[in-house]
Amino acid sequence: MESGLFLAEGNKLVASILPFFECELLIACPSWMAMQENLNVKELIAVEEEEVKKASLLKNPQEVIAVFVQPQHPFRKEALENELSLLLDGIQDPGNLGTIIRLADWFGIKNIVCSPDTVDVYNPKSVQASMGGIAKVQVFYESLPELLMELKHLPIYGAFLEGNDIYREKLSDKGIIVMGNEGNGIRPETEKEISNRLYIPNYPSPIESIESTESLNVAVAAAIICAEFRRQQIYSQ
Fold first, then answer.
1. Which residues, in sequence order, are bridge partners of residue 139?
2. Would the pLDDT of 48 be above 70?
3. What is the DSSP letter of 6?
4. Which of 121, 14, 6 shows the shortest CA–CA distance to 64?
């Protein structure tokens, strides 16, 4: 957001990210405040639950709303060298982005690089869906084709509806995983830089002539792919 601030709501979410971000304003019920050991915030306002509900963007408001300063993390492509990282090409749904941040945190992925047209990581819905993962996963916005050209020495995997069965592929414990737009997938200029095309087979298999859903939600697909990468890493040791 242009203000350089972002909004977070909910008892658990706000408590989980307070230690990681500078808090400009915190509005909360006294009952929530009493449960916190240290509230290092610039401005603190105690209100009743009804006042929180009036200000909330959530369907089911809780007891706290906070405004945080967006951190400024300089991007260094070298940070991707010895890690497993995610690149997101044109993700538009803030809930999908937040969920992918959450699962990146779960699977120990420290960096996500987004194309410039990917939804804002500090969209309130993205922050909410990240469930605190936004405090532990760094998210950057860069031109993906140019970045991938500079990372050609790394394994670069992309998720496609056609490719090599992920469960039959030998996967690296470091490299790049590219996930595409919800409707259009990975755009052509990004696709041409990808060296390994992966797909998640459905069940029953297509040869059994039983129709299944056309494709997976991008966040669900990212979770399955990251899980298989980590499974191979753990059980190949």
1. 112
2. yes
3. E
4. 14
Neighbours of 185 (CB within 10 A): 20
Contacts of residue 189, defined as CB under 8 A and 6 or more positions apart, other chains included, come to: 145
* Dihedral, CA of residue 37, residue 38, residue 41 and residue 47, to nearest 10: 20
pLDDT at 204 over 80: no
Question: How far is 85 from 139, CA to CA, in rounded Å?
Answer: 11
Which pLDDT belongs to residue 210?
52
Calpha distance 44→125 (Å, rounded) = 23
CA atoms within 13 A on the CB side of 19: 9
Assessment of whether the complete model's pTM goes beyond 0.70:
yes
What are the DSSP calls for 36-64, one per residue?
-S---EEEEEE--HHHHHHH--SSS--SE
**CA–CA distances in Å: residue 32 to residues 4, 129, 130, 132:** 26, 21, 21, 18
**The two three-digit tokens of residue 10, written as one number:** 């909910």
* pLDDT of 209 strictly over 60: no
DSSP class of residue 139 equals: E
Predicted confidence band at 59 (pLDDT cuts at 50, 70, 90)?
confident
